Amino acid sequence: MNALRKISKVYLILISVFLIIMSLVYSIPNRRIKWHVEESVQQLEIEGVYPSVFFNTIAARLDNYTDSIMLNIAAHADNNRPIRSSMKNPYRLAKESGENLRVDDLKTAIKDKDNSEETTYSRYWHGYLGILRPLLVFFNYTEIRFLNICALFMLFLVVNILLKKELGLGIMISFFFSMMMSMFIIIPMSLQFSSMFYVMLIGMIFILLRYRYIYNKKLDTCLFFIIGGVTSFLDFLTAPLITLGFPLVTYMFITQDNNKTFIINTRDIIKNCFSWGVGYIAIWISKWIFGSLITGENLFLEAVGRVAMRTSSEMGEGEYFNILSVLKNNFDMVFNNTSIYIFMLLVICYVILAILFSKSIKEISKVLPVLCIGIIPIIWYCLTLNHSGIHFWFTYRNLSIGIFSMLAFLSYSIDIKRIKLKYTL
């Protein structure tokens, strides 16, 4: 009951903060924002809707389609009714779009408003606007990308340093490699991909810095509820599970002590996964509830319809997605001709070291449940066949959780003290 009261308080605080943030950012005058969005159109037109960068593969594809929608929504807030507008999230579509769908919509909405019409995107919170709209007052899309690169890579560097300090070189390498497998190098160039990586990295930093306090005060359930809620607030249904998987694997390894057992670790994983899921769903549904109350319109109809479609297996025109093909398409994005060999080499090195310098069976067996965290993306794909089948070129990033959990487990199984003792004498 005590945990339930804590989570209830956290929920009320989160909802209050989210409503205030959205109301404030929708109150920012549109003039300078539209000016910088207009500057941004040229960059998007040059690149096209789905450009691939650095590598000639769709795994390295940017989502300028969704970024254009984000800029479109950012530019069309109703400053006279900010609270209502923040619930409906209006933007404009061109009456006739060209090949660069959504980029053309954005251009027409900004430069030729008479040939566009208003629509809404109310099923998501669009919490990213809390950062994007203030930035657009001062910067255009290209400049925001540069800032994004600096910020994300700085956080990435901090996480690697803290992992090396708290959990050792092996787990740091495991994290670094899993991020490279998810094409982290291109993430800052796409606004729609970035938000989940911010939540993941900041969540990991908080855990690595404050894990003793979280563990001793039993605040892990509240923490993962908050992470799930913030994920729902910011997410566009990209790869939300990384905000659960990476912080949870980190938390499980960093809180291992003599009192922890296989059963306790299993319980903690189930409990925190459930807490994250409740936070994610509760905050998402709350948008539809408060949006309906504030606007006087039923936002559930469109939202529930879209959720039903994304969780179905329907492909269109009597065709259906097959779970095996969906899994194959997602796995193919992660394990290309190069990454598969690097992954196997890393696994072999870890296994050899684990055989030669292994910890006790008791110590290894108690963290076995961590491997189950890597299965969560498979369950997600089964539940979201339509979405994961259509958007496999970015939903594949959820699989990096499995890579991290497996490599981190193998690394944890190696007794570093034995290695140091043998080679320092």
Molecular structure report:
- The chain is mainly alpha-helical and 425 residues long.
- It contains 22 helices and four strands.
- The strands form two sheets. It has a two-stranded antiparallel sheet. A two-stranded antiparallel ribbon has the order 3-4.
- Helix 2 packs antiparallel against helix 5.
- It is globular.
- It starts with a helix and ends with a helix.
- The model has no long low-confidence stretch (mean pLDDT 92).
Summary keywords:
single chain, 425 residues, mainly alpha, two-stranded antiparallel sheet, two-stranded antiparallel ribbon, 22 helices, globular
Helices and strands in order, then pairings?
Blueprint: H1 2-25, H2 30-47, H3 64-75, H4 82-88, E1 90-94, H5 103-111, E2 116-120, H6 129-136, H7 141-167, H8 169-181, H9 191-216, H10 220-234, H11 242-254, H12 262-295, H13 300-310, E3 314-316, E4 319-320, H14 323-334, H15 339-356, H16 361-365, H17 370-373, H18 376-383, H19 385-390, H20 392-395, H21 400-412, H22 416-423
Antiparallel strand pairs: 1-2, 3-4
Helix pairs in contact: 1-4, 1-6, 1-10, 2-3, 2-5, 2-6, 3-5, 3-6, 4-12, 7-8, 7-9, 8-21, 9-10, 9-11, 10-12, 11-21
